[in-house]
Model the fold of this input.
Amino acid sequence: MARLSSWLHQLRLAAADDVLMREQMALDNLRQIRFGAALISGLYLVASALLLPQAWTPGSGVRMGWQLAVGLTHLGSALLTLVMGALAHRALTRQPHGRLARVLPVAVAVLTLLSGLVLTLFYQWVEPKTSPMALAALGVALLIYLRPVVAAALFLSLAAVGFALLPWTQHDPALLASARVSALAIPLTGLAFSVLSWRRNRLRILLARSLAQANEALALKQAELERMAWHDGLTGLCNRSEFMRRAGLELLRAQRHRHATSLLLLDLDDFKQVNDGWGHPVGDAVLCRIAALLQEQVRSSDLVARLGGEEFIVLLPETDLGAALQCAEKVRRAVQDAPLATGQGLVNITVSLGALAVPFDSGADMSRAYAAVDRALYRAKQAGRNRVEAGSLGAAAPDPGVTAAAR
Done:
């Protein structure tokens, strides 16, 4: 019972794989039929061109009849092959996943095997050859990917029909026995090759699909790593290094186009008390709230970043000091008027801001601009917090220890 259950499970997996791969198999078959039609139809036409003219020359009646039958069979097979190639091209260009794409490979296999069988029967008139059947079976097995069930039905039917019809044209008992053995062995060999070919293509499709999925996952992982490299993990804003890089480029662009660029530096007031009194999860929620409010209050062309801790910075391209101060005041009021609701009550939040305009002709880089706006933020903290102060590139730097104490 355990072995039977295992076999049934394998059959279900194979059926599921077949459903998943049916469209790809159909595409592969159509491409091979289109390619093979041009080659095989040419061979059929050459064979018919060699045989048909000789069918009208004087000779024995049997020989003439054989040449005529074989030549016409080759000619008809050539025409049918061209038609099948044209249908495969039509299916590929118009409906690669339609019904024709699924039916055509089976039809081509049936016609090819019939052609090989008919030629083999005709050959028995003059010599005991079974090579047409062998070539047809091998061609179908290697060029057309048939599901094992379909392949078994076709090749076993070929064996049965060939075994039954050979006595019509082969009357020598010894030669008939040999031909019948070949009529059984050739389809069975073709079936084995067909199953192996189908399994090989199935593995190829599965490997290609696995590789595509792995490449897609790798691309997503790479994109996520790149995003993490320049984003703050908590708020989703740019981090310090990315902000400094982009802000430095913006200052260079501002110098070239001769317009001012402004910075806002923001720091939460008494944030340590929030963490100590409400807990760090609430503190994280406060930081995310500030990030969202900043993005709501500035333009889409502005750049918002978290520098670290409770400190945020905003780059305002093409903005003078007056407009920067207005934006800073709008941000300050928005934060003050939007306390964070928690299960334990409302958490009131206020921020202090420094605002700085960098004239295009100042020659200041981001290091100098950041130091200046940091001094403005320090003055806002020192003046009582929850306020905005304007900065200047020429102001003296405060003592770092005093700055830290003020914040």
Remarks:
- The first helix runs from residue 2 to 51.
- The radius of gyration is 41 Å.
- Confidence is low (pLDDT under 50) at residues 395-407.
- Residues 240-406 form a domain with the Alpha-Beta Plaits fold (CATH 3.30.70.270).
